[in-house]
């Protein structure tokens, strides 16, 4: 007669004991990822700013970038990362520099280098940048203040300043 019972395992109970078909899983998704990368890479690579490219613009009004007010003046915008999704925005006269994340969106081919602003009353918000001859537009994230104004249905106008490649 047994006083203590010993549990018996019916099969594998830990992930280590289970056999995973890693090769099949990898091949299934690798083909899809490769096809997507080959489709999108040429379009994005050709339109992105190169690390040495700098966009120069004279901004005649105070505006907001990433919830921060910045003064009027001469601004240089250039990529801070190799993928171009982080931009550095500088005003050397005001000794001001900031980083902002940017998303890329595709649209009509731009005729010039431009900085795009949204204007709510007397307040301006930097929302994007276009590159001459390219279909890609850099879009900056919406600030909290702009989101509040938009939620209040304040009329918005788009202001476009022509810039140059420096």
Description:
The chain is α+β, with helices and mostly antiparallel strands and 166 residues long. It has a domain at 55-165. Helix content is 20%, strand content 37%. It has 2 helices and 12 strands. The chain has helices at 22-47, 144-151; strands at 55-59, 63-65, 68-70, 73-79, 86-91, 96-101, 103-106, 114-120, 123-130, 136-139, 157-162, 164-165. 20% of the residues are buried.
List the helices and strands and how they pair.
Blueprint: H1 22-47, E1 55-59, E2 63-65, E3 68-70, E4 73-79, E5 86-91, E6 96-101, E7 103-106, E8 114-120, E9 123-130, E10 136-139, H2 144-151, E11 157-162, E12 164-165
Antiparallel strand pairs: 1-4, 1-12, 2-3, 4-5, 5-6, 7-10, 8-9, 8-11, 9-10
Task: Explain briefly what this protein structure is.
With 166 residues, the protein is α+β, with helices and mostly antiparallel strands. It contains 2 helices and 12 strands.
Whole-number mean pLDDT:
78
Order of helices and strands: HEEEEEEEEEEHEE
Number of helices: 2
The N- and C-terminal alpha carbons lie at a distance of 91 Å
Strand order of the largest sheet: 6-5-4-1-12
Radius of gyration (Å): 26 Å
Low-confidence stretches: 41-47
**Largest sheet properties:** 5 strands, antiparallel
The general outline is globular
The total strand number stands at: 12
Class inferred from helices and paired strands: alpha+beta
Provide the β-strand percentage band. Answer: 35-45%
The share of residues in helices is 10-25%
């Amino acid at each position: 007669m047994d006083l203590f019972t010993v549990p018996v395992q019916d099969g594998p109970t830990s992930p280590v004991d289970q056999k995973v078909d890693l090769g099949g899983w990898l091949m299934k998704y690798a083909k899809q990822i490769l096809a997507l990368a080959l489709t999108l890479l040429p379009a994005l690579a050709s339109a992105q700013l190169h690390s040495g490219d700098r966009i120069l613009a004279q901004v005649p009004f105070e505006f907001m970038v990433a919830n921060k007010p910045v003064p009027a003046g001469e601004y240089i915008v250039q990529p801070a990362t190799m993928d171009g999704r982080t931009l550095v925005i500088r005003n050397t006269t005001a000794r001001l520099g900031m980083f902002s994340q940017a998303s890329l969106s595709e649209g009509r081919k731009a005729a010039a280098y431009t900085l795009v602003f949204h204007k709510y009353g007397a307040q301006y918000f930097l929302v994007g940048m276009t590159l001459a001859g390219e279909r890609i537009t850099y879009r900056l994230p919406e600030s909290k203040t702009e989101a509040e104004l938009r939620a209040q249905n304040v009329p918005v106008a788009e202001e476009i300043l022509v810039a140059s490649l420096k």
